[in-house]
Design a protein that fits this description.
six-stranded mixed beta sheet, 6 strands, globular, Archaeosine Trna-guanine Transglycosylase, Chain: A, domain 4, alpha+beta
Length: 141
């Protein structure tokens, strides 16, 4: 069995961790064009926070990946399971992590990594990332 460690931001983690009854979560990729073939359905996908918080803080089980999904469709499909209170907040986060700025009025395409049975550790239970974790890793490994 393989596992994948995806890099996420603290706000996404904190928002979803406060919702213990989640059955699924959308771990979206802001670029939207690249694929995701690291896991087979049912394999674990772990969440590691961006630096300076070098911790694994939870995870879920990979179900499906879809590339180039319009953000509006991702919001209609997953709503707050995207890790944001509003669509506008989600788009602001997408813009923050994109290499190119979003033009006004554009519905950005994102990648959607659907995770089932997400779980989130309380801060005392966070696991330190491996000491040899490459700092230049921006999406996961």
């Amino acid at each position: 069995m393989r596992a994948y460690v995806g890099i996420t931001d603290y706000d996404w983690y904190r928002f979803l961790a406060a919702r213990p009854d989640l059955d699924e979560a959308n771990f979206w990729k802001p670029g939207g064009r690249s694929g995701f073939a690291a896991l087979q359905p049912g394999e674990p996908f772990l969440f590691k926070l961006h630096a300076p918080r070098e911790y694994i803080v939870g995870g879920g089980y990979f179900a499906h990946f879809a590339a180039a999904v319009p953000a509006t469709l991702a919001w209609q499909s997953f709503d707050e399971k995207n890790g944001a209170v509003t669509f506008e907040e989600m788009v602001a986060r997408i813009a923050k992590y994109r290499k190119e700025p979003l033009r006004p009025g554009i519905d950005p395409a994102i990648g959607c990594i659907l995770l089932e049975q997400p779980f989130f550790f309380d801060e005392p239970d966070w696991m330190p990332a491996p000491a040899d974790w490459p700092r230049e890793t921006v999406q996961g490994k």
